[in-house]
Amino acid sequence: LVEMDTHHTGRVPLSKFYGTGLDAEWRFGESEQYLRELGALDETSWRGKQVIIPNYIQAASNCIVSGQHYLVCCVNDCEVMLDEIERKVAAPTASPETILGIVGNMTSHISVDDDHPPHLDSSLRTQLAQISEAHSGEVPIHGRLFAQWLHYVFPRECPFPHKTGTSTAATPSEFGNSYIASAEDMRRHAAEANASEIPAEMGKEELQWMSQWSPEEELVTDHLAHGFRAPWEGSRLATGAVALLAVAALLGVFRKSAFGKGGSEGGLLPSYRAEKSHFV
Q1: Which pLDDT tens digit goes with each residue over 75-92?
Q2: pLDDT tens digits, residue range 206-249?
């Protein structure tokens, strides 16, 4: 797959993918529908449909063992990069400058021949700045947008993070008999290989290789303690919630004065001998 990725975009034209599959016994034979279901197909490029290398490698179709409750799959090379970032940042968020300083000194781990720092061009720097602007100047390193940014920095190692619910980890048996492409479909796509061939000197910007980028964020951890808030916070709803808590506190004080420390079963709020109340 890496050898077929001549422009270092982390993607292989579907025509090349099937062209190679025709010459092999079993590899590269997943159907177009199954690749789409797995989230391993990029259909946004003017080059045509492309297989996303890290998403394909991590797909359930390539797992060594498929059990009812677990899968044994290939190692995710991107975890090495993220682990290094987590150790050096030591926080759930970081500034764009901090991230660029860390990532700029990292190297790809996919092969010895690919051991060089990533090329952080202007488009990648702009995208990282836009992520921070959406989060008060900080970049959540466990969010979908940062994972998407890492994918374009290390396109062969880091999977593209699809939005929740748009892809599945269905095994071939779960997907059904249509998981494998027919020989006719493979030959039809392979016949387009020459048409999808792009000159090696064409740059990534000309290829519009970030066409799959989407601005939707998904935070997988709770960042409220670090200044990130839900859209409704700070609005009238939040003011009303504070007022409601104030009324509840007054009721608690009234109850305490009326019934004493031990409380009474008919009270509106719980009362404890330690004189503490927890409002949820």
Answers
A1: 899 999 999 999 999 999
A2: 677 889 999 999 997 665 445 555 443 444 445 555 455 555 55
Is the pLDDT at 57 greater than 60, yes or no?
A: yes
Cα separation, 158 vs 79, in Å, equals: 8
Q: Do the Cβ atoms of 65 and 72 come closer than 8 Å?
A: yes
Q: Taking the model in full, what pTM does it have? A: 0.74
Residue reference for tokens 């939005």: 163
- For residue 279 the two structure tokens come to 């409002």
* 94-to-31, 107, 159, 186 alpha-carbon distances in Å: 41, 20, 21, 45
Contacts of 152 (CB under 8 A, 6+ apart): 124, 127, 209, 210, 213
Query: What is the rounded CA–CA span in Å between residue 108 and residue 129?
Result: 23
275, burial (CB in 10 Å: exposed 0-12, middle 13-18, buried 19+): exposed
Spatial separation of the C-alpha atoms in residues 84 and 254, rounded to whole Å = 55
- Mark 105-134 as b/e (b = at least 16 C-beta within 10 Å): ebebebeeeeeeebeeeeebeebbeebbee
| Paired strand residues for 30 | 180
pLDDT at 274 over 50: no
**Selected residue with higher pLDDT from 123 and 269:** 123
Residue appearing with tokens 């990725």: 5
d(CA 209, CA 191): 23
For residue 23, the tally of other CB atoms under 10 A from its CB is 9
Contact assessment for residue 13 and residue 50, using Cβ atoms and an 8 Å cutoff: yes
